[in-house]
Write a structure and sequence with these properties.
two-stranded parallel sheet; 60% helix; Std1/Mth1; Protein MTH1; mainly alpha; two-stranded parallel ribbon
């Protein structure tokens, strides 16, 4: 009966890792395998088969010696070694860390392969895995820590150009209902059409409103950079911070002290009143959306932008109305002056015109006065004297042309109505008292 040798399977490898009682049992196992008749297989097969027990015996004896010489380290030494290795990894550069991790990982792989047949391979692999079990995880953690720790070493941006300071996209500043309602109402820059107004210096101050940001960019650090413009005649620009989670007082103060329409020289009281009204309206709308009354509004980006644009529109309309009012008042004064200086026929003053009974009414005093005037001005006749007197009177009247309160109130109301109608606003002009 032919008996074949057991195949070298994983089961056989597991059996090799089981502890052996003594060296004699190894020889017994080898002798039992050698008892197979030689005539049942060829010579080459027999030679290779006889060499198998010898290699297994030598491998098992080597493993036994390694087991006797191996000493398990106490847990505190293991933890201390692990901490020391981590410290060295953190102190090394990223390239050295990756090279060190790969070399240690390959070394651990070679060690596990060399000791695959040993009885203590499981213990050794578990000891190695406790330190280098997840090199990718350690590398990821080191990368994150190094990126955070190395960022302050980079030079922070303290000066930016106007193009770099302005936002590149605007889709998060407006609700989807506005952006998706009618594509024809969207400008080429992605903003709605109502952000473009035919008002005095609107484009300039719209750019200034876009420089109000809700958060700092990472490359700015903890401070707002300076906006650089080219040219001496360029207007002033600066970045302002207004977080989404801000109190009403912070929002009002930021709007009032902004650079919006600084050239119009609007009075502080008007800007403060306009900012308070804008924030109060936004609070009512926020409470209607959220259904709760918050001490500090946690605004969304569209709500936040809506507050800025409403305040900008209020002061822009006021600046436009005041500009139109000054022009209308100047034009009205010129018209009144022209009406008062209409050309009249060249006639002497009424006191000089002789009456019908001049011979009876003229006194000697009047005759003497007229004679003295003619004697003092022998080269000028009476008509020239009358024209000089009329010119002096007109010059005095020109300096005294003014408008009454009723006239100013009427002109102001007309300017407001024209601006509101031109912009399509349903606002009501101030009533004339």
């Amino acid at each position: 009966m032919f008996v074949s040798p057991p195949p070298a399977t994983s089961k056989n490898q597991v059996l090799q890792r089981r502890p052996l009682e003594s060296t004699n049992s190894n020889h017994g196992f080898a002798s039992s395998l050698q008892a197979i008749p030689e005539n049942t297989m060829s010579g080459s097969d027999n030679a290779s088969f006889q060499s198998l027990p010898l290699s297994m015996s030598s491998s098992q004896s080597t493993t036994s010696s390694r087991r006797e010489n191996f000493v398990n380290a106490p847990p505190e030494y293991t933890d201390r070694a692990r901490d020391e290795i981590k410290k060295r990894l953190l102190a090394s550069s990223p390239s050295r860390r990756s090279h060190h991790s790969s070399s240690m990982h390959s070394a651990s792989r070679r060690s596990s392969v060399a000791e695959s047949g040993s009885l203590l391979s499981d213990n050794a692999s578990s000891y190695q895995s406790s330190i280098f079990s997840a090199p990718s995880t350690v590398h990821t953690q080191l990368t994150n820590d190094s990126s955070f720790s190395e960022f302050p070493n980079h030079k922070l941006i303290t000066r930016v150009s106007l193009d770099e300071a302005l936002p590149k996209t605007f889709y998060d500043m407006y609700s989807p209902d506005i952006l998706l309602a009618d594509p024809s109402n969207i400008l080429c820059n992605g903003r709605p059409k109502f952000t473009k107004r035919e008002l005095l210096d609107w484009d300039l101050n719209d750019i200034r409103s876009l420089l109000i940001v809700e958060k700092l960019r990472p490359e700015w650090g903890n401070q707002l950079p300076e906006v650089i413009t080219v040219g001496d005649n360029m207007p002033q620009f600066r970045l302002q911070l207004l977080p989404l989670y801000s109190s009403d007082e912070t929002i009002i103060a930021t709007l009032v002290h902004s650079d919006l329409y600084m050239e119009a020289n609007l009075d502080y009281e008007f800007k403060l009143t306009s900012a308070k009204y804008t924030v109060a309206t936004a609070r009512k709308r926020h409470e209607h959306i959220t259904g709760r009354n918050e001490a500090v509004m946690n605004l969304s980006k569209p709500e936040w932008r809506n507050i800025i644009e409403n305040y900008l529109l209020n002061i822009a309309v006021e600046a436009q109305c005041r500009f139109d009012f000054k022009q209308r008042c100047s034009e009205y004064k010129k018209w009144k002056l022209q009406q008062s200086n209409l050309k009249r026929p060249d006639m002497p003053p009424p006191s000089i015109i002789p009456r019908k009974n001049s011979t009876e009414t003229k006194s000697l005093l009047k005759k003497a006065l007229l004679k003295n005037i003619q004697l003092k001005n022998p080269n000028n006749n009476l008509d020239e004297l009358m024209m000089r007197s009329s010119a002096a009177t007109n010059q005095q009247g020109k300096n005294k042309v003014s408008l009454s309160k009723e006239e100013k109130a009427t002109i102001w109301s007309q300017c407001q109505a024209q601006v509101y109608q031109r912009l399509g606003l349903d606002w009501q002009p101030d009533s004339v008292s």
